[in-house]
Amino acid sequence: MFWTVTLSLLEGFLGTIKLFILTLVFSLPLGLIICFGSMSRLRVIKYPVRFIIWVVRGTPLMLQLLVIYYGPGIFLGVNIWGSNTGGRFMAALIAFVFNYACYFSEIYRGGIQSIPVGQYEAGQVLGMTKKQIFKNVILLQVIKRIVPPISNEVITLVKDTSLARVIAVYEIIWNGQAFIKSSGIIWPLFYTGAFYLLFSGLLTLLFGYIEKKLSYFR
Amino acid sequence: MPILEVRNIKKKFENTQVLKGISFDMEEGETISIIGSSGSGKTTLLRCLNFLETADEGTITVRGQKLFDGQHPVTNEKEKRKMRLHFGLVFQQFNLFPQYTALENVTLAPLLAAEGSGKSDIIENGKRLLDQMGLSDRMYNYPHQLSGGQQQRVAIARALALKPDILCFDEPTSALDPELTGEVLKVIKQLADKKTTMIIVTHEMAFARDVADKAIFMDDGVVLEQGPAFELINNPEQERTKQFLSGLIK
């Protein structure tokens, strides 16, 4: 039984990891675009972007999943997600990417704004272009400062993936819970915690390594 | 021909007129010290010369070439960059790049500008400059591993690496312990002895008097008095200058 449960949970965990990785792949760069939007000098860009960030950060991710999945059908009368698992996964992915991109954008903004203006000015008086200053002077200092808060968000994301099951996306908790109905046992559900712990442990080690790599300067 | 002619520079921030028409000349190889109380506009003047601020009025001419004209200020970034390179600036807070070694700080901008050619010359020049600053054993240290005085000397080498016509210092020792002030003033004096053209905003009156050829006393956005440094600081003519200097120097 233990072996059957482990295999089933592993299979569910693949779904979890797939959602996790794809969310990061898209939300990390999208966050940067949103960040530049929220810092734009043009008000027509800045304020709408900040409004969106406010809405996304101010409402539960679970609610966003439901709105994105059911919203088009209810409000537009078209079921753009189809009825198969692929469509549900896609809806979940979009909700996650958007939600996390907004959080990441605020972390990026904090990082960029924390760099002293003297760093830009030093680059300017040395005749560097704005691009050169950002790429060669600012970027690495920003990365160093945002690694700890990003690592926090990423570890939260590992666990947030479990919310996807509100729109029936298969992931590890879904599989664990299935044993309650099929075999009348609850321990597989508790057992899923070990998978989360193991995975977030690995991520903690990875981020610790990155932080150490960047500790050669202050 | 003077290397630098500054005429009627005015600058206003919101409701405060910080510079009310600054004019002065300087010759090649000369060192000018600018003195005056905080808020008199000294730093803003340096920032206008380095195009970190855009003056509202006036002209800045270097070697006969008009770099800035308040009536037609240059807004093109590329043009601005080219003009900036006539000036170097050493900041009060050093502003070294923390992720680069002392040598990399000095060579970064020249290497970016050279786009690959003459790379080894740039690095050799960087080493020579750091050596000149007495930092030959600190080239591969990161800024946080250096004392304030050492950091400021790296910053001076970094500014010199671009061979500016005029090197400006914005209170270069104000962020340093008294103990470390001396080593920075010593290298600036060496540069003055080698006829480097320099403008130094400073509160070190003895230094301003002994190292500079000329001194400018600024008060409330105007040049109240200018002349040979030794005379101006030892025997000021204006009441306000006397009042400022009394108590600062024995």
Layout: helices, strands, pairs:
The complex is a heterodimer of chains A (218) and B (250).
Chain A: H1 2-38, H2 43-58, H3 61-76, H4 85-113, H5 117-125, H6 130-160, H7 172-183, H8 187-213
Helix pairs in contact in A: 1-4, 1-7, 2-4, 3-4, 4-6, 5-6, 6-8, 7-8
Chain B: E1 4-13, E2 16-26, E3 31-35, H1 42-49, E4 57-62, E5 65-69, H2 77-84, E6 87-90, H3 102-114, H4 119-132, H5 148-160, E7 166-170, H6 178-193, E8 198-201, H7 205-211, E9 214-219, E10 222-228, H8 229-234, H9 239-245
Helix pairs in contact in B: 3-4, 3-5, 4-5, 5-6
Which descriptors apply to this entry?
heterodimer; A: 218 residues; mainly alpha; MetI-like fold; flat; B: 250 residues; alpha/beta; Rossmann fold; 2 domains; six-stranded mixed β-sheet; four-stranded antiparallel β-sheet; 9 helices
How would you portray this structure in words?
The complex is a heterodimer of chains A (218) and B (250). The N and C termini of chain A lie far apart (53 Å). In chain A, 81% of the residues lie in helices and 0% in strands. With 218 residues, chain A is mainly α. Chain B has 250 residues and is of the alpha/beta class. Chain B contains 9 helices and 10 strands. The model of chain B has no long low-confidence stretch (mean pLDDT 92). The interface between A and B is medium-sized, with 22 and 28 residues.
What topology, given as strand order, has the largest sheet of chain B? Answer: 6-7-8-3-9-10
Total tally of structural domains of chain A = 1
> What's the CATH H-level superfamily name of chain A?
MetI-like
Instruction: Write the CATH homologous superfamily of the largest domain in chain B.
Output: P-loop containing nucleotide triphosphate hydrolases
Structural class of chain A: mainly alpha
Rg from Cα of chain B: 18 Å
Strand content of chain B: 25-35%
Share in β-strands of chain A: under 5%
The CATH architecture classification of the largest domain in chain B is 3-Layer(aba) Sandwich
Q: What's the order of the H and E elements of chain A?
A: HHHHHHHH
Q: Largest sheet of chain B, if any?
A: 6 strands, mixed
CATH first level of the largest domain in chain B: Alpha Beta
Quaternary structure: heterodimer
> Which regions of chain B have little confidence, pLDDT < 50, spanning 5+ residues?
none
Number of extended strands of chain A? 0
H and E string of chain B: EEEHEEHEHHHEHEHEEHH
Compute the average pLDDT of chain B.
92
